[in-house]
Amino acid sequence: GKTMRAAAAQLGWSYVDKFSYQSIPGAASLHLFAHGTRHRVAHMLSGMRDGTQMSAFDHQFKRPFLNAYFLHTVVMAASSGVGLPSFVLRTTSFLANSGVKPSNQITFPSHPKFSSEFVLMGTDESALRHLFSDAVIEYCETHPGLCMENANGLLFVFRQGVLAPPQSLTFYLDEANTLLRMFASGLSGVPMAPPPLPPPITS
């Protein structure tokens, strides 16, 4: 808590130690909270990052009937401006460990690694096939444990079993913004411009 509060101060963001997950818009319908019991959220930082309203918080829940707890840091970013369809992306191991069966699963035969390591669920298959471009799929394949969900104009990003170190929090925030840009690129069909080159080294 102390280190997360310090990270919020460094970013110039607000900080809340504890709050109810039900205060998150559309929480009751989110896959993130629909499975498991004893959901707890804490250490929420909120602010603007590169023009996007974002929050980060720690989330814990328990698998029913088993003494198994799940704990991870979630980044929540406003996605309403991008117009993303609703979807849930989970690693196959996370779903299996949490006892959840896939539904409305979409696979990519041209990307067998992605389809074996991740479960993509959603009802608008056509839109999701555009959304999950080759660039997005390659990003997922090279970032093991990545889980996402988009609903109610919010994108949720976390890694299976990973609590983000406060000193590395900006990486996770910037990653969410990068994913939003890649999603927008996939929907528009316009390739995302490569990141700018670093300034030349001067002696």
Give an account of the 3D structure.
The chain is an alpha+beta fold and 203 residues long. 31% of the residues lie in helices and 31% in strands. The chain contains seven helices and nine strands. The protein has a nine-stranded antiparallel β-sheet with strand order 1-2-3-4-9-8-5-7-6, with helices on both faces. The longest helix is centred in the last third of the chain and has 20 residues, at 169-188. It is globular.
Q: Numbering strands along the chain, what is their spatial order in the largest sheet?
A: 1-2-3-4-9-8-5-7-6
Rg, nearest Å: 17 Å
The rough form would be described as: globular
Overall pLDDT metric: 88
Low-confidence stretches: none
